[in-house]
Amino acid sequence: MQNNTLNEVTVFTVGGTETALAPVRGRAVRLPNALQTALADRYPEPIARLLGEAMIIGALVVQSLKFDGRLVVQCHGTNEGAVSLLMADCTTQGHIRGYARYDEDTLQSILLDNRNPGADALLGGGTFSMTIDQGSDMDLYQGLAAVEGKRLSDCAEHFFKTSDQIPTMMRLAVGQDIEDGGSIWAGGGMMIQRIAEDDARGETGDVYQTATALMSTVTDAELIDPDLPMETLLYRLFNEEGVHVLDTSSVSADCRCSRERLLNTLESFDAAAIADMADADGNIRAKCEFCDVEFVFPVKDVETA
Ligand SMILES: [Zn+2]
């Protein structure tokens, strides 16, 4: 029996006689309910869609890291857009969280002209970046691309083309799934990349070209539909070229913020700064931007140096 509520990433290859030498590698993600946890009731629809796209990109790309770490997908908008910051933070263990900072008035004026604004309109241009955090003693890796196109997948494809020179195709879909009379945010995505050719692998461009043509037929509904097993969809798309599922792993929407970590940060300030941060009742209030949980620290409990 297929469990259709699993949030999962599937790693696959297309073409080739041996999977280790396949000319095309891909990953697909299906999030039947993880996005709901992150987006529900917190954002207006166009912003929720955009943040959902960023979280799907994060879930797809973080799986390519060969070490434990995290990937941060970030967009910085301009004054012409409603969204000034969009951030999705994903770990190799499959924990994803997201946050958007936006201006309600600007959003309303954008919606007057365009009922269905895409990434370019919501951000007003700006930059798209992916940062890999390899742990505290290692350097950050960062690349940038301009925000262009309606979908954030356009930015991600552009990012791979300019920073890694890896031919990449990405599709994302975010929608509201009707369930038990209500609706919940659900999403899915897929990416394929051409592996550089070498003596053992041979030429890889032809299979990649064919795979992009096949993948261009995938619909948003197919990417999102929790009742369509991902393996079935991959077979439906790439069967002619040969498709192999290598691995599946779970994804969950949860925040790693903790009271203890916040307290440690507060305790690095001096007593005067702590007194400044306190409200009239002698409490410091700090809200996690990712999950909206508010932490309250009585000043007397903060042991400053
Ligand atoms: Zn949090």
From TrEMBL:
InterPro entries: Heat_shock_Hsp33 (IPR000397), Heat_shock_Hsp33_C (IPR016154), Heat_shock_Hsp33_N (IPR016153). The keyword Ubl conjugation does not apply. Coiled coil: none annotated. GO terms for biological process: protein refolding. SUPFAM superfamilies: Hsp33 domain, HSP33 redox switch-like. Keywords: Chaperone, Cytoplasm, Disulfide bond, Redox-active center, Zinc. Gene3D superfamilies: Hsp33 domain, HSP33 redox switch-like. It holds the Pfam family HSP33. One of its GO terms (molecular function) is unfolded protein binding. One of its GO terms (cellular component) is cytoplasm. The keyword Chaperone applies. PANTHER family: 33 KDA CHAPERONIN. This is 33 kDa chaperonin. The lineage of its organism: Bacteria, Pseudomonadati, Pseudomonadota, Alphaproteobacteria, Maricaulales.
